[in-house]
């Protein structure tokens, strides 16, 4: 039901309690004073509907539903601490504003999902706001958002015009697919407190060029597939944590006092790399088209796993110091510019046979 009439509820009406069995939409001119209501399916006592068509508790701390019809702008009272799940889902609202000194702390699942006209939302709250899963999914016109904390799964999935997302210090998690298909996002800063960057977090962020980490941070887990489909990503700032480090756009994971080279940005502009780690992992340099020269530090790498340098078409040189004990088959698969390493310290027959065998397989 849609009520699109002037002054349906005014100060001149008796203060009766209206009862509803289903969601009813009101135009902006329909309600001129807050009124007590009962909503059968919400099972919540002492509800009111405000002049902004917000269905709330009597103290106006929780928004349960939005019953607005063709609203373009909404102001959230500063008394609100929680916006429940799906409150504004599929609405036509373009701008969400908050009164000064907002106490908002929780936004429920899918609260603004598919608000296809939403362009601006500005969190003025000084408190930590927890944003649950799918909150802004498919908000096609949303361009900027700030003061984010602990971003849950698919929070901004499909926000194709999102250019800026400001994550506040104190945040610890970026959830699964949280920025998936944010085609306009070009750069993002990761606070020092973030511990987890989950699967597909930045999947298909086609314009994402740079990820900036605090030089010393708390990162405990980053899923490689969170950035593997970012076709423009060419820079990750250098950083270190107890579990990871990044140097020259190359990510290393620390396990049992050993460093594993797990990923190099294939679109980075690095042509020369000096490696000082224990293991070069499978597909870590997959399709790294600009790499020409790799120098392995003595007493470092012991294992080069299969397909480590898969399809590195411009790789011309790599050395093999004594520390390199195992070079697995197809380590240099489709590396057509390299015929043999220039420096092999271990000249034993068995070792040379291993290298030769690997090279023969890699160039087929």
TrEMBL record:
Pfam families reported in the protein's UniProt record: LRR_5 (PF13306)
Species annotation: Trichomonas vaginalis (strain ATCC PRA-98 / G3)
Lineage start: Eukaryota, Metamonada, Parabasalia, Trichomonadida, Trichomonadidae
Protein name stated in the entry: Leucine Rich Repeat family protein
Highest taxon listed in the record's lineage: Eukaryota
